[in-house]
Design goal:
Blueprint lengths: L1 E12 L2 E11 L10 H9 L3 E10 L4 H4 L7
Antiparallel strand pairs: 1-2, 2-3
Length: 73
Amino acid sequence: TWNLDCNLSWEYKPGSMLSIVWQNQLTNQQNNINELFFNNLNDFFENPTTNVFSLKFTSYLDYSTIFNSKKYD
């Protein structure tokens, strides 16, 4: 199994964040193994990969700025 994860996070204002994630996975399950290391490695990397891309956006919302709070006198 080969896993590669790349994460990029940016806090653009306090409490708010943008995250970008890319994941690459390569899996090979075979019963026969090549005796030569580099031949075995080349066979492994010829298999198809799985790529996952995700984007996460979180934002801090201040209740008092959204709904004008009434001040009591």
